[in-house]
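Weekly structure sync, notes
Attendees: PL (lead), two postdocs, one rotation student
Agenda item 3: pending single-chain targets
PL asked that the sequence for the first pending target be pasted directly into the notes so everyone works from the same version. It is reproduced below exactly as submitted, 180 residues in total.
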Amino acid sequence: MGVFGASMESVYLTVLIVSGILVLFYILFGDALDGVGEGIPFLNPVLILVFLVFLSAAGYILELVQVMNSLFIFLLSAFSSFLLTTLLNLFVLVPLSSAEGSIAYSEESLKGRLGTIIVPIPKDGFGEVLFESNSGRIAKTAASLDGAEIDEGIRVLAVDVKNGVVYVKPYDERTLFRNN
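Predicted structure, written out during the meeting:
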């Protein structure tokens, strides 16, 4: 059986090569098509191309072995391609897309965090504080909450954030919660 006078092996191989080239182009120039398929997740260009690659690869291999009817080979290839594409989407693409923004932080999320002064804060001036977390380090401009001087290396507590400046006070576990 063939399509337009070509053997099924040739059809599968041609689709495999063309879809492989399209995958390569999409990797290189995919940012230009970033919004395509945004509203309908299963029409994502990556998923369509991956489906075609899996379909044509499975079809080509099964046609070379010639253990079954060409229609059955196509149906088996389509089913296996759908299954592999779904698994790839669920276990690779969706987690990667949600991980993209997970290292972001908001200035509001800095309130209540402990940091270390890396540039001393002079009296009524500005310095720099370093916040460390599992996702990395964040250095922000800092000012003392009460206008006092804070030396380098002192642990501080972020109390407020205004206009990109973190207002801090020295952190001492022994005296922080004591009633004055």
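Discussion points:
- The helical segments are 8-29, 45-65, 70-99, 173-176.
- The radius of gyration is 29 Å.
Action: rotation student to compare against the earlier draft before next sync.
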